Amino acid sequence: MDTAEIRTLLARSQDAWNSGDGAAYGACFTADATDVTYAGTVYHGGEEIGRAHQTLFDSFLKGTRLTVDILEIRHYGADTAVVVTRGESAKGQPRKLGKLATYTVVRDTDGRWRIAAVQKTQHKPLMEAVSFRFQPGTRPAAR
Questions:
Q1: Does residue 143 sit within a domain?
Q2: pLDDT at position 129, please?
């Protein structure tokens, strides 16, 4: 399937972030994409996502680098896949990859893969460990 093209898409979004280029970042998304940040902000469409991120790249996120580690890619037909990643944005090398993101990627009308939706979540290992200790049935199967 198109696993290499999907990896290239996520690398392109990472490169745009690392360059502080909101327009290039937004171009990685579909026109009707949804981006749910780990803070809970919801952006709609590649243009809005790019514009908002440019503002962030020019202020709070200035000089940050995005690190993305792809954990899995699952295809659902020829034109849709779900990608789970672990990552972090930081100035310099991150101490840990503390955020998880789930991407829905699609082959867009021009044949290129783009992000249709992404949901980012802060990993909370202490809360997770407590849950697993007192409710062992909540522990996911090993992968």
A1: no
A2: 83
